[in-house]
Amino acid sequence: SGPGAPPDPVWFVKIRNMTRPVFLAAALLLLISGFALPAFAALALEPDLQAVSRAGVQLKLYSRLQPIQLNTIHSWEIELLDSDGKALNNATIQVQGGMPDHDHGLPTSPQVTGQLGNGRYLLQGMRFHMPGRWLLRIDLEIDGKLETVEIPFSL
Q: Tell me: the pLDDT tens digits for 52-72?
């Protein structure tokens, strides 16, 4: 910059250098919210299936695939609450099922793959291959006590 030359546009360089981190932060926020939204949305609705065990354990199932579609592997969230509505953590959960009218089981072997907190668990590998009457059998072990809950439903 010599005499008579315009001053360096320092303010422009500063703004340009600041826009990249702001843009990246905004993009990251949108990306995270896009992945987190289905999980939060699932629990914001009424459960897709629910039952109460003989001991009063409330079992609520939320499909992460809405609407539930045939021949699509998807995940569910399972919510366990005691008879007072308190979250039950550290349970062991096994899920089996099938179509009693056709005498066959589920086409997949769904597994609980993690605890999500507040009595919620992630069930992965669900798939229903045909419309009709289904039955889910859910075996629970909570504090050393075993329970089985059966939930009939139709697709």
A: 999 999 999 999 999 999 999
CA 22 – CA 25 distance, rounded (Å): 5
Q: How far apart are CA 48 and CA 41, in angstroms?
A: 13
CA 142 to chain centre: 21
> What single-letter amino acid sits at 62?
Y
With 0-12 CB in 10 A as exposed, 13-18 as middle and 19+ as buried, what is 110? buried
Query: Is the previous residue joined to 67 through a cis bond, with omega within 30 degrees of 0?
Result: yes
pTM to 2 decimals? Answer: 0.71
What residues have CB less than 8 Å from 147, skipping those under 6 apart?
A: 53, 54, 55, 57, 139, 140, 141
CA distance 116 to 95: 17
